[in-house]
Amino acid sequence: MKKLDIIYEDKNILVVNKPSKMLTISDGTDAPTLYEEAREYVKKKHKSNKIFIVHRLDKDTSGVILFAKSEKTKKELQSNWNDSTNREYIAILEGNLKKNKGIIKQYLLEDVTHKVYVSKNKKGEYAETCYEVINRTKKNTAVRVWIKTGKKNQIRVAFSSLGYPIIGDKKYGSMTNPMKRLGLHAFKLGIRRNEGYDEFIAKLPKEFASFLRRRET
User: Which of 10, 27, 30, 58 is catalytic?
Assistant: First the structure.
């Protein structure tokens, strides 16, 4: 079993740093999943232990994933997920984004090929994506991203629709892949629980950290 990159653990939750190119949960194929690794990890402690999916990240997105250790905790967390969490991402975009910060408000639909696109008549699921530029180079823009809704491919579609797809995201129009992976990392998860507030951070992959140090403007 591959060693989990554990960020935090207590009797109710397990928080891990998901690597890029790994599914959170099975898509029906035999590909390994983070859920299987987490389940194996807790069962090694006691065979009756269980793990439950609370949320997920796209296969090629890395970063913070929180699992619940009971159905009760899972339901409590999911019941108010959007309002009780603060989710922050780092994304590397193709091109030089014009604005330094903004809010992208959209309605999203999904086609038969499972590709998400922006609805032109406010049909579909509402998605709100906030961003702020944190670095620029000649060819790319690094942004900090906060989401107020957690819709499928939301961040990827938001920046693609502006004409600045995330690097490595061929599905949504990227033409370059300098990091040999999707340029999206779920950096921080803050969550209100037990009458308090907890914040979990997944350290930046080295390729992200290297990019953020560049100053090629």
Answer: 58
Taking 70 as the threshold, does the pLDDT of residue 1 lie above it? no
Q: 6-212 has which CATH code?
A: 3.30.2350.10
What residues contact residue 54 under an 8 Å CB cut-off, 6+ apart? 66, 67, 68, 74, 77, 78, 81
Task: For residue 136, give the amino acid letter.
Answer: R
Q: Tell me what pLDDT residue 216 has.
A: 59
Active site residue 58: yes
The larger pLDDT score, comparing residue 69 to residue 215, is at 69
Per DSSP, the residues of 85-123 read EEEEEEEEEES--S-SEEEEEEEEEE-TTS-EEE-SSS-
- Inform me whether the pLDDT recorded for 204 exceeds 80: yes
